[in-house]
From TrEMBL:
The chain crosses the membrane at residues 48-69, 144-163, 169-186. The keyword Transferase does not apply. The keyword Membrane applies. Residues 104-187 form the Phosphatidic acid phosphatase type 2/haloperoxidase domain. The lineage of its organism: Eukaryota, Sar, Alveolata, Ciliophora, Intramacronucleata. This is Phosphatidic acid phosphatase type 2/haloperoxidase domain-containing protein. Keywords: Membrane, Transmembrane, Transmembrane helix. GO terms for molecular function: sphingosine-1-phosphate phosphatase activity. It comes from Paramecium pentaurelia.
Amino acid sequence: MRQPPFEHCLDCPIIIKLMDACPLSPFWQIVQEEGFSGLADTTLLYELFMVIISLVPWISGLILGILLLKRRDMRSLIRAGTHLCAHITCDVVKVVYFREDRPDGSCSLKYGLPSCHSIFAGLYTSWVLIEILVIGMKLKTRHIIAVISMLIVPYSRIYLIYHTLKQCIYGWTIGFVFAVMGLTLHHQCKKRRKNKQVKVKQ
């Protein structure tokens, strides 16, 4: 089994390590020894940006969960459920079907195909774009910010040596498929509910 090649992988905070978002440089050691002044190097700032982008799917997932608890509507339930099913599928096919290692230099020893971060990003982006371009949902600033962030996620996974381009493409494609299935289910549920309402009125 491969071993982490960088000592800073072991020094990475546990929460960041669990989210598979450790930077390439001994980032945390530099902060401890030199403070935030040690981050003046543009390379380190760029790595920090990549780490933050890699955390976007986790943050977005938390937001979707909060919205589900707050709204408790059919759309939020189906959307959150679709993301959950996609994540479970990712974990299963990684171990059972593909069993492909991550690239050399990765801080993670888990299998890398497909990229779960890319699945989330692909699902989220596809869902929003389909709702806007096909269904006609109103475009808002938060949608633009979210989509741009999600589009960078696969690149951040490659930059931080957690995945290969192939693993990210597989992930994004699976995410797109789940988005189509989730929105189709939502459409069918809305259609069935409307039919029931029409029958009750009659």
